[in-house]
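1st attempt posting a full record on here, be nice pls
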Amino acid sequence: MRGIFPICERDFIVSWRNISSDLLPTIVSPLTFFLAFGFGLQGYLSDIEGVPYTMFVVPGLVSMTAVTSAFDHGAWSLWFHRIVQKTINEYRVNPISVYEIVIGKILSGFLLGAIKGIVVAIILLFLINFQTSTGAESALGLLMDYSLVFSHLLFYLLFVFLGSMIFSCVGTMCGTVMDRPEDLNKIQGVVITPLVFLAGLFFPLSSFPSEVLPLIKLLPTTAIFEGARQALLQGRVESQYILELFVYAAVSFILAVIIFQKYIEE
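the predicted structure (as tokens):
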């Protein structure tokens, strides 16, 4: 397993060189959602599950940033290495297994997604603090009110890590089999975006009709966003969501290895 960290380090260093230009589009999307939904609708909404609406959406927006960044990294970095730089052929001559390659890309995708998620979290918490600065509460006070303890954060990071692993594996598969950048954009528009908006990121799952709610709960993004929110704000870990994510992570990892192995052997 010695090849995992060199691959992770290489991808991370290459991406870090462009981090300043990558951060802007990464920040704009969740910031726009927060301003439009968090500030725009809060005056018309009561607390959701005992939480102010702005605090309700923040954990999901941070999780969304991390997992979509993991997908982008997995898809575009592999596509660029394969189509543009042609450096993917180096893996054929180096004594590195496919498992090491995929795990290395998962780790680098998670690290980059985590960094971007932290930046987004700082900005959103600052905006919450600015919004509540005229009152008695602050963002830090709100977090303390919801019993944010270290164990809550660990469980939250577990959901984010599993989600990043799933999306990184899906991105790796897409970057392996798709030759045109237009196809990657289609996946983001047709698959990723609906998964984000249907996962209860901006509203409670109870808003869905009871007939479709079981199906919504089976979406990986529902397990990521809802599970992470419950873990961070309530310290509650729903076993169904954890089990789903482990299953999705295992299946996506196996598929990513099989697809990438098939490409390497061609």
